[in-house]
Amino acid sequence: AQILEKDIIAKEIDEETKRLDKMMEERRVKEILMQEEVEKQRKRDRMSGARVIMEQMSLREEERLLEQDKKEQEAKMVRKYLESLEDDDMREMGRRKEIQKETMKSIMDSNVEAEKRRELKKEHDRLEDLKVLQYMKEKA
Prior knowledge:
By secondary structure, the protein is mostly helical.
């Protein structure tokens, strides 16, 4: 009876040891699975963070290109405006030169006309003087 009891106790101890080993193994497997899940989550978080950074870099590059394009358009508009002003200045200068040329021609024409009138008056006065001299000769 003692041997039987000893065998039963040994069997119970063996079963308890197996049950405890099984529980420890289950806990170890559960911890490994939890650790793997934690690692997977960290990896997902890193990938998500990297994706966000890549998207931000892409967005910044797009904004930089848009800003560069905007500056180029503004510079082009300024150049066109300056060219327009320069064209206007050239036209205005041409118009002023034309007016100046017309004014000079008018002055020259007036001077020529005045000179002709002076010459005519001089000739007229000379002819009048000759008439007066002729008249005085005839009377004398």
